[in-house]
């Protein structure tokens, strides 16, 4: 009986879809939209990661929150899957729905930024890219923490985290959200803040897209630091030297010697010979120029002299520009694309990495990695260390589930020319890379994964991304989106 009812429901779902009607409804409301046979649709439905081909039923371009609401209602009426796209940089094309046939609400027309001159709070629309936000805020001497890839959209970045070099001093992007205007699945336009819809406010800071479309966000901003330094050191190392450099790196981050103004990462790249890797250490320091050497020397003094050193000192915005991937002003050049697979591993601070796991990773990269023909790298991003503001936020204050993170690893492999096809052997290569760490840690080691480095091959993603918060997210999902309108491959499942 139950099965028959389910089949009947599934039949009603597909029978209800009427593309002609959708086109008419959007046109009547003056909402620009592209459908499969329209000029421009093919370009508009290209994913950033060309490993994915996704054909939405339509891509709509609302210009304000009322139009977002109209699109959501039109989609929900026909039981379509509806998704938001801001910068389109999802690793698995979730901004296009991740599956064929979704209705995409593209927010690229919504790029207002208004800074209140009294409170310095900024109301920023989600279609803005990170580089442009940094430029506009800097004009009034303010800044936000976020990643350095300038073309990332605010909507996705702030919905799931938002880590960058300023994050140890200012937190993740989402930690600075004071309130947001959200369009729910029934078209309602609501405010999410501590005082208004507090559970929704909790959920949009860590897993936003399962609950609604965020139409604008109010942020607390920070005065920009007067001086900043960008640094980059590179070495070619054999396995014992690189293992030691990694072990000393963890000791240094755990030592309590790093001021919160320090942000950085190690990067591990293919070496020039079997049994070697290239190691980079780079980042930004937002303390005074004069104090930079004393800050990095405790670590550098444990290592051989770098083969290349590049230190740049300047203002906040000069240093953001120096470290950026892409121009800060994103209107000057089109966005790029890639064909890649990436994974993530968030290592908890309370159970540091064993020497064996660090040696195993370096050995794997220097041997298996050297033999692998793809373009790969592993980033080891500093989240923790004494005083890090990321880890000062109480675990249950937001839906972000990893407030005890020492490092976030991002192993990534791209096809050699960055175009399809993606070599299927690289999935196994990256799985083995992660195993080299986890298999040398206690079996109950509670590692997490970062939902902004979203991985379509992670079997236990609910637990890895959301940990103890998953069930609470499911409750919220059931209450605000009972029809599962905001559905995509890694959306929160209803209870
Ligand atoms: C080259 C590159 C470098 C990166 N570097 C960093 C980094 O340094 N630090 C870091 O933290 N991350 C980094 N990322 C990851 C990045 O933060 C995520 O991919 C992010 O989700 C992209 O946001 P977007 O708006 O561009 O993507 P989209 O594809 O538009 O959206 C991503 C997800 O968010 C949802 N979404 C988008 N807008 C909204 C909205 N307004 N309301 C509700 N849901 C929405 C989408 O539906 C989708 O599920 C990087 C990514 C790339 C490609
Ligand atoms: C789809 O909608 C159009 C326009 O409203 C209508 O003319 C048509 O009959 C509908 N088709 C179906 C199968 O319901
Ligand atoms: C759509 O645009 C037309 C022409 O500009 C205008 O008359 C009409 O009121 C608009 N409709 C809506 C819903 O905004
Ligand atoms: C969408 O459809 C196209 C064409 O049939 C197909 O190549 C592609 O793999 C589909 N995408 C997904 C995510 O299933
Ligand atoms: C980016 O450059 C364009 C063209 O020079 C300019 O109009 C725009 O204001 C710039 N944007 C920002 C955020 O500075
Ligand atoms: C910092 O160290 C570099 C090289 O190690 C040196 O050139 C520079 O003068 C030092 N700066 C200060 C302020 O001591
Ligand atoms: C040093 O770094 C700066 C800023 O990242 C960059 O502009 C410059 O080209 C680099 N110099 C060298 C020699 O790599
Ligand atoms: C880990 O390696 C470091 C550096 O080689 C060494 O000083 C330390 O004693 C090792 N720790 C353990 C537990 O073996
Ligand atoms: C790498 O390739 C070489 C040459 O084919 C081979 O001897 C070696 O065993 C390979 N190493 C690994 C770890 O696969």
From TrEMBL:
Please provide, alphabetically and separated by semicolons, the GO molecular function terms listed in this UniProt record: FAD binding; oxidoreductase activity
Q: What is the annotated signal peptide range for this record? A: 1-16
Q: Which UniProt keywords apply?
A: FAD, Flavoprotein, Oxidoreductase, Signal
Q: InterPro entries, per this entry?
A: BBE (IPR012951), FAD-bd_PCMH (IPR016166), FAD-bd_PCMH-like_sf (IPR036318), FAD-bd_PCMH_sub2 (IPR016169), FAD-linked_Oxidoreductase (IPR050416), Oxid_FAD_bind_N (IPR006094)
Cofactor(s), names only, from the UniProt record: FAD
Keyword hit for Cell inner membrane: no
Residue ranges of the FAD-binding PCMH-type domain?
52-224
Classification via SUPFAM superfamilies: FAD-binding/transporter-associated domain-like
Entry keyword Oxidoreductase: yes
The record's similarity note reads: Belongs to the oxygen-dependent FAD-linked oxidoreductase family.
- Could you tell me what this protein is called? FAD-binding PCMH-type domain-containing protein
Q: Which organism is it from?
A: Rhodocollybia butyracea
